[in-house]
Design brief:
This protein has 28 helices and 24 strands. The longest helix has 48 residues, at 591-638. The strands form 4 sheets. The chain has an 8-stranded mixed sheet. The N and C termini lie far apart (90 Å). The protein is α+β, with helices and mostly antiparallel strands. The chain has a domain at 1-155: Dna Ligase, domain 1 (2-Layer Sandwich). Residues 743-813 form the PEP-utilising enzyme mobile domain.
Length: 832
């Protein structure tokens, strides 16, 4: 029985005939493929040793094929009935996911039937080429000579032809499909002899194309559809060759795109409220450890299995990144984590709004719930029961959390007297008992997001509210620790107003002069010391360990009090707005709707209040960590391992603990700190990074690509309303609240705020913030203090300048520029 050396497409599926042939065989079941067959590489063994040597040296002219092979070849050519043929390689490891062998083997087009045998030998010869051997070595493949199987395919007499990438091969953007086309055959394009025309199909359906296009828009879309069907078929982005003959589109070849990099999206929309500007290695490593733990606890709380958490450990380990010294959310991993949660497929928009992700999920990510929409809904319903139990247990969990805080932070330790290993032990205890047991704040934050979001929806559906009634309802709650500093600062300012000599000392004196002068004013001195004790850790950028606190710089507190004493306090009637909002709800609701509404309102108020209170406790925990690390820095200076105690912030948590625990990978702490210090000083001179960007491959290897920029009006901007009230007046753009001098209450404009801004918020007529969400610190505190506020206003710190006159509505989120500081008449009057 004669052994077959040539295989039809159906036979090729089960034979060792190379990646290209097997791909074509699979594609032929679904797509329009020109008829073909494949000559097995084993057929090469039928040649004599002398004939094989001739092929190796390229002496193929006139060399006959063995009779058996020639007979089978003639039979297959006759069966297909073509006149011209494409003869090309199909090596065993060609067109693999990691090795394409593109351009390594010879291919021949428009070959007459009588010349197919000769060109079969030429393709085999290309297996001996030096370039092929070099490619194998580069890819770590078998280094011996390997002749390929050979495809023989009916030649399409193309009117136009080319290649198509189902993802952009340059920037790895999977939302863009790229087509290259030439008139006639595509061999000139594939070989690089001709550039051809390039078309890019965007996700919107728009096509970027040349001025005088060869292809019509429907043809481009049809080619891209073919490429993406092939991608779906194989499960990875594809590089296809195509041809159009008499209006019919053929797929000639499909192989994986081997040059695509993994794409990561980075975003700092929300995290910049906690970590602005350049952040040191110590703070980043400390925060990264916290996020790693917190997100694992978060998904476990919502019913994600331990197995799923373990399988996705790499995702939780990289929730944040450090780019040019700036902390960013790894948005890709953030969405992968949300995709694990029951209800993600139906509640994604809701989650995004509460978390402050202003632009939503990049379509390129295509993260879906791992279980599908129907199963996701069922999982969510099952999870609700567990959440109701967790809600009932929440008061007890909060109480236990505060008890642990009191136990571990209530007794003040004299850290400077501790040895290095004692400090490391103290940190380990802090991490184990508090940082790694952040269960109550996590649960509370989640329920704050849920109840506030539901309250917002109920106000819209049941009360027909189109403004921000929910903000009035949760304002003036009281018992919120973040509002206490404003009250205490105003009390001290009131005492200082009648003391002109002390006021001058507070304004201009040194730390020593201020503390000495306070000794003659016992009431003010007592309040001053209590404020430092209770709120001294609350400072600008309080979560950055390198930040100086009021305890480090008590003169800054004196300067704040002095400024407040020079300006009458601003009164905002949040309580009356809250009462009016409640009255509206009671008038419009009755029966079960009223009971449900006020049950939701009660929990929203409680959870939002405790969210801010627990954030204050986080400040205290971070403050204790800051003191530990500063003391470690002082110890390392004594041991001559650092030049300056502040250099400790250029080491990582693992490096500091490693020195105490015997796991250090380098003892040159001084050299590490100095190297990083110089690097991070260089980051200070670089321009700011975009709020959101994508990176293909390593974020450190490329120019950062920003997301699509917005077209913004110069006279009106829309943000998220977070605290109601209509205000018209001039603005003051504030970058550093510690240094700004205000002569009267004004509308404050900021990129973002944190608890350190409490030093000037009492002087705010209104607050306009570029970043933030409905549950950000800016939103919560502005509501509590009754300050009209809007967050997430696009580029507001660049749009507005000091002295611009604006009108804002904290109920709608609209800001209108009335008059620019350098314009004599209102801008809005000039508009058509």
């Amino acid at each position: 029985m004669q052994t077959s050396l040539i295989f039809t497409p159906s036979e090729a599926l089960t034979q060792p005939v190379g990646g290209k042939a097997q791909a074509l065989a699979r594609l032929g079941e679904k797509f329009p493929i020109p008829s073909w067959f494949v000559v097995s590489a084993q057929a090469f063994a039928l040649l004599t040793a002398e004939q094989q040597a001739q092929v190796a040296h390229g002496n193929t002219a006139g060399l006959p094929l063995p009779e058996t092979l020639q007979t089978q070849l003639s039979q297959h050519l006759s069966r297909l009935g073509g006149q011209l043929w494409a003869v090309r390689s199909s090596a065993l490891d060609e067109d693999g996911s990691q090795t394409s062998f593109a351009g390594q083997f010879d291919s021949f087009l428009n070959i007459p039937t009588e010349q197919v045998a000769e060109h079969l030998l030429k393709v085999w010869h290309s297996g001996f080429a030096s370039r092929t051997a070099a490619y194998r070595k580069e890819k770590g493949l078998h280094s011996g000579v390997q002749v390929p199987a050979v495809l023989v395919q009916r030649m399409v007499q193309a009117d136009s032809a080319g290649v198509c990438f189902s993802a952009d091969p340059v920037n790895s953007d999977r939302t863009r499909c790229v087509v290259s086309a030439v008139q006639g055959l595509g061999d000139r394009l594939v070989s690089g002899e001709e550039d051809g025309e390039t078309y890019t199909l965007l996700e919107s359906g728009e096509i970027e194309k040349p001025a005088s296009p060869l292809l019509t828009d429907p043809q481009v879309k049809q080619i891209c559809s073919l490429a993406r069907q092939s991608e779906k078929f194989f499960g990875v982005p594809q590089d296809i060759e195509w041809a159009i003959e008499k209006g019919k589109l053929f797929l000639l070849q499909s192989r994986p795109i081997t040059t695509l990099e993994s794409v990561t999206w980075w975003d700092n929309s929300n995290i910049i409220e906690s970590y602005s500007g350049i952040t040191t290695p110590l703070t980043f490593s400390f925060a990264s450890r916290a996020y790693r733990t917190v997100y694992r606890h978060f998904v476990r709380l919502l019913g994600v299995s331990d197995r799923t958490i373990q399988q996705n450990g790499h995702v939780f380990d990289v929730m944040i990144g450090l780019v040019q010294g700036r902390i960013y959310y790894n948005l890709s991993n953030w969405y992968r984590v949300l995709g694990m949660l029951p209800g993600f497929s139906i509640n994604r928009k809701f989650m995004e709004q509460m978390m402050g992700v202003s632009d939503g999920m990049p379509t390129e990510l295509k993260v879906q719930s791992s279980s599908g929409a129907l199963q996701d809904t069922l999982d969510l319903l099952r999870t609700v029961g567990g959440l109701m139990w967790t809600l009932q247990q929440l008061p007890g969990a909060r109480a236990r959390f505060y008890t642990r805080l009191k136990k571990h932070l209530g007794v003040r330790k004299h850290l400077p007297a501790m040895g290095y290993s004692q400090l490391a032990d103290h940190y380990r205890t802090l991490e184990a008992e508090l940082l790694n047991r952040w269960d109550a704040p996590l649960s509370n934050d989640f329920f704050a997001m849920i109840f506030y979001g539901v309250l917002r929806q109920l106000c819209s559906k049941w009360l027909s509210d189109t403004g921000s009634l929910q903000n009035d309802l949760v304002s003036a709650e009281g018992q919120m620790i973040s509002a206490v500093p404003a009250k205490k600062l105003e009390e001290m300012a009131g005492l200082l107003r009648n003391q002109p000599d002390l006021l001058n000392t507070f304004q201009n004196g040194s730390r020593t002069e201020i503390l000495q002068a306070l000794q003659a004013h016992s009431d003010l001195q007592k309040r001053f010391q209590i404020y430092l004790q209770d709120f001294g850790e609350r400072c600008l950028d309080e979560l950055k360990l390198e930040s100086l606190t009021l305890q480090d710089e008590p003169e800054m507190l004196a300067r704040m009090v002095a400024r407040l004493s020079l300006i009458p306090p601003v009164s905002h009637d949040a309580q009356s707005r809250r009462e009016k909002a409640e009255e509206i709800a009671r008038q419009k609701l009755s029966g079960w709707k009223e009971k449900v509404f006020f049950w939701v309102l009660q929990h929203a108020r409680e959870c939002v209040r405790e969210r801010e209170n627990m954030r204050f406790e986080r400040t205290r925990v971070f403050g204790e960590a800051r003191k530990i690390f500063r003391s470690m820095g002082a110890n390392l200076v004594k041991m001559q391992l650092l030049d300056d105690p502040e250099d400790v912030f250029y080491l990582t948590v693992d490096e500091l603990l490693g020195y105490a625990e015997g796991t250090a990978t380098s003892l040159n702490l001084k050299g590490l700190a100095q190297m990083r210090k110089e690097e991070f000083q260089g980051y200070q001179t670089l321009p700011g990074l975009p709020r959101r960007f994508r990176a293909a491959g390593s974020v450190y290897r490329q120019s950062l690509q920003t997301s699509t920029s917005l077209t913004l009006s110069e006279t009106e901007r829309q943000g998220i309303p977070c605290s109601p009230g209509v205000v018209r007046g001039t603005v003051r753009v504030v970058k550093d609240p510690r240094t700004v001098q205000l002569s009267e209450p004004t509308i404050l404009v900021a990129e973002r705020t944190d608890p350190g801004w409490i030093i000037i918020l009492p002087l705010a007529r209104a607050l306009l913030v570029e970043r933030g969400s409905l549950l950000s610190h800016s939103a919560i505190v502005s509501r509590e203090l009754g300050i009209p506020g809007i967050v997430a206003i696009p580029e507001v710190t660049h749009w507005l300048q000091d002295g611009d006159e604006v009108e804002l509505d904290g109920s709608t989120g609209v800001v209108r520029l009335i008059r620019a500081a350098n314009q004599p008449s209102p801008l809005l009057e000039k508009q058509p």
